[in-house]
Structure prediction request, 105 residues.
Amino acid sequence: MFNFTLQNVSGSLIVNLEGDLDIEATEIIEEELIVEIQNSAGEVELNFQNIDFVDSSGIGLLISIITELKGNDRNPTITNISEDVKTVFTLLQLDEILGKDVVLL
Prediction:
């Protein structure tokens, strides 16, 4: 099951993600999380500390979110990536696609 919590710290929004970033999570993200992010201001940190699995639908949605945030000068970052998820990100070269300043491997 996917869940998220939000923290506002020094003008930045920290999004703590938990569970699997898969097809089931995309509904929650599209209906709830994106609205919360749009209603906030400042930089956005996606904390992946408690994400153990990411599938293609999760990657696609992640790319869309990061692209939109970068387009709105929100300076997004993805932090605390587990080793398993790092392997997927590295294979897909997400740090090259999204930027090494976004994907903090």
In short: The CA atoms of residues 11 and 42 lie 6 Å apart. The first helix runs from residue 23 to 38. The chain has a mean pLDDT of 95. The chain is about 45% helix and 30% strand.
